[in-house]
């Protein structure tokens, strides 16, 4: 049959390309009119399928009649995968299977080649293969991706009997006699795909199709339904009693929502785009005209809705798989033999817990009995039977929200466990039981924090923190010891559950969380002492990290104030574990060894104080030990306290000129080397030592200079690293009382994938010397290294950064905290601004959390004192905030004016 749209005067591919655009425009018009995702995806698929038929038929009609007859009787063209389902996004691939009998191999291959070429010319991206029935079945048995695509196979052209023969052969040889194998292949392939796309439903930049809870999970449920029961249709599975009506309704709503989001992403990108990035989230929230609330921005409300759908999809899919997974005969026999009863009601199998059918309604209608189930399952380390969980889920909707004393006791027994707690609380949350016990948990459900720091939603972060704390039980560090010595683990775990519950209300989440913790403690009948402990932990859960990472914990005043606030060893242990669990749960790799050491150091110092050791006495004792060790490295005689130093008075003067922080965190051998260099260093010279450390793949640059170069030394060194595209991951800045400078920078050199060669290190050493003595300036360095790449711009929805001034924590210095999103060159711009205000950096703590930096500068003014004048402090704050603002707006252009 000919098509009038293709004339002899028009190139076919022009017509085809026009029709592709018309199909996409049709979808876009439906989107504008408010059509559902399902309607739009169906309309696009129908239009593309009609075009495919036109391309096939146009090419077919150009063949001689004998060949036409040969092909139409021995070949078939099928749409498979998403195309077979009849659901396509605007720029989706078209999945085709060209099927043939052996005798027409060459003729059909030539025909297919022309079709494929025309499809590509039209702007359609094909995923296709040319196979016989035998080839297709063999491929489906070994390649799960092809097999699952075949489940959706549907003939659109050619010999229908051939296509039907393939479908029957596929079902018989791939599915029918190997249901369990195929089921497991589908699940394993999907689990691997999940891992490749983040492994968590609540990751903040999900892939709409492939991340956990995405469209692929709905596909997986259909595929496993087909493997088990011969149908991939959700309604047929519902009618057969394989899945309940509520879950089907939830899946359909989620499918429609996810399809629409995916379609919008495709249209916005003008190409296939399934990754829901932060920028596109902001764009979509604006497109959908979502209005924010006092506690949540529009984008956070958008993503909370998204995660509610994706989380429901993931949970339903996982439940379906658990409930319908085929079991080997031997496994069934083993389970039967090993199952025993408890209380004449419970059936305890090796891997799951169930209730005897006639008692199920009775158990599910009692919160106490349900909690007893969870307590028993947690005790045995097994799961609850999927269909029993479904019954609990239904009952939770109607259960009385009043919590009895017995229910509280059971809940606290669950919270007191050191194993299986994370999994148990997740299941309690999924069934709604946790919300009955702690109603505020509903607020945290899928709650998004739209920033560059967290990787997960509040509820996912919370459960990961619980799971992180569990792992500390087997840790042989001070953290593990602290966890094992905590007596009230139920209070600790309740605090972890509630530590971020105050987010999303538009107020300080620590204060709001403390209020919620107080209400929850009353609801759960905690004793007054326990109530105070819980509120303290929630309110103070950020304080320990703040001190460890952003303050000089060798300062006795800081330690004393913190120890007074904590008050007891048990509270300190709990706060320590809570802090470590919280940081670990932020995202992969966030709780580094460096952070672990800093936190442990603060814990151990504070524990000494709580044990009766005065902080200043303890510090003096440590400094005395360090001093003796340094003397030993310098081959100086060891002197007793009562002995007068005479010949080595220079050593005492130089040693005492360094800050306690430098002396207590620097290895004694390094201190000895620094002192020896400073003692013999001519006033106009600078020593720079660079060393590559293979275990961390970083280079440590150690810089020693006399007082002559102390002014602006810090930011000049930073300019060298920034101009050379190096990432500064930590810095220790030390200026002695006599003006000598001892600075260390740990950097990642992104120009080298593995070991940084010695020649590169030496070149950087030379550049640092020139920069510090003023032989080269920052502008020249930036212009000489034009490969410098500006990082991607940040959306205006992110805060451009903030500056906090702390004039209380240190007696000698004003402390400046700069919290901003990490950009190449940020540290240089900030340090230069500090220098231009006439301030000197005497200590700095540089740290990066994912994309957020918290840089801390201990500064003194021109008179080597802390800034006391209120107007000057305000001026410093405002100037630095303007610097951050200008830098974010202009980025790399700022370097042209350095």
Automatic annotation (TrEMBL):
Keyword Isomerase: no
GO molecular function, one term: nucleotidyltransferase activity
InterPro entries: ACT-like_dom_sf (IPR045865), ACT_dom (IPR002912), HD/PDEase_dom (IPR003607), HD_domain (IPR006674), NT_sf (IPR043519), PII_UdlTrfase/GS_AdlTrfase (IPR013546), UTase/UR (IPR010043)
A Pfam family that the UniProt record links to this protein: HD
Catalytic activity, reaction form: [protein-PII]-L-tyrosine + UTP = [protein-PII]-uridylyl-L-tyrosine + diphosphate; [protein-PII]-uridylyl-L-tyrosine + H2O = [protein-PII]-L-tyrosine + UMP + H(+)
EC number per UniProt: 2.7.7.59, 3.1.4.-
Domain spans labelled HD: 458-575
Cofactor(s), by name: Mg(2+)
Entry keyword set: Coiled coil, Hydrolase, Magnesium, Multifunctional enzyme, Nucleotidyltransferase, Repeat, Transferase
UniProt-annotated stretches for the region Uridylyltransferase: 1-340
Residue ranges the record marks as coiled coil: 863-890
Matching SUPFAM superfamilies: ACT-like, HD-domain/PDEase-like, Nucleotidyltransferase, Nucleotidyltransferase substrate binding subunit/domain
Similarity remark: Belongs to the GlnD family.
Summary of the function given for this chain in its UniProt record: Modifies, by uridylylation and deuridylylation, the PII regulatory proteins (GlnB and homologs), in response to the nitrogen status of the cell that GlnD senses through the glutamine level. Under low glutamine levels, catalyzes the conversion of the PII proteins and UTP to PII-UMP and PPi, while under higher glutamine levels, GlnD hydrolyzes PII-UMP to PII and UMP (deuridylylation). Thus, controls uridylylation state and activity of the PII proteins, and plays an important role in the regulation of nitrogen metabolism.
HAMAP family, per the entry: PII_uridylyl_transf
Description of its domains: Has four distinct domains: an N-terminal nucleotidyltransferase (NT) domain responsible for UTase activity, a central HD domain that encodes UR activity, and two C-terminal ACT domains that seem to have a role in glutamine sensing.
UniProt-recorded name of the protein: Bifunctional uridylyltransferase/uridylyl-removing enzyme
Organism: Gimesia maris
